Amino acid sequence: MYFLNDELVFPPVDSANIEGLLAVGGDLSPERLLLAYQSGIFPWFDNDSIILWWSPDPRMILYPDHIKISKSMKKINRNNQFRLTRNTCFKEVLEYCSSVPRDGQDGTWITDEMKNAYIALHERGIAKSYEVWEGDILVGGLYGIDLGDVFCGESMFSLTSNASKFAFIKLAEELQAKDYKVIDCQLHTNHLESMGAQEIPRKEFMKFLN
Hints:
Elements: E1 2-4, E2 21-25, H1 30-38, E3 42-43, E4 52-54, E5 59-62, H2 71-79, E6 83-86, H3 90-99, H4 112-123, E7 127-134, E8 137-146, E9 150-158, H5 163-177, E10 182-186, H6 190-194, E11 198-200, H7 202-209
Parallel strand pairs: 1-2, 9-10
Antiparallel strand pairs: 2-4, 3-4, 5-10, 5-11, 6-7, 7-8, 8-9
């Protein structure tokens, strides 16, 4: 196990254990966080843990042009049920992502320390949010790290059915138009797989970053 210190460096990702845990410790400074994402690494821990850094193999990703849009979502698009904005209320999206319960999850990994870190990255134009509105009410959204041609998705939330799906579809469509390589989804979920995401070897994912 690699223990980080004040030096701004990470070990090679292929030294992660079978679960994908690569290193522990360090801090959540904007500089370290950005280096982590650029290196195929992300933080994931809870309030009772020291900082844990991960680089799983395989890696869950979505090629933007592989997004699957169901008939029901196409109908929602036609009916203009939702309205999309970008980067208008990043802190609110972050707060909802940390507080809205999810099936099969107990608690949140978005600690106060992590919130402050991502807000700092947002202020530098690196962390971005997509917000979904029903009328004037915020009902869903997502946020992640924008590396220029790879978008690292961090979390999403829904207060009403299909709101986060809408945000994810719009993200994929916009990144496809901008020729982004992939959306990093980090870990497998059935929900992401149903929308077109797939697992690829970590070494293949690293090629997109390099």
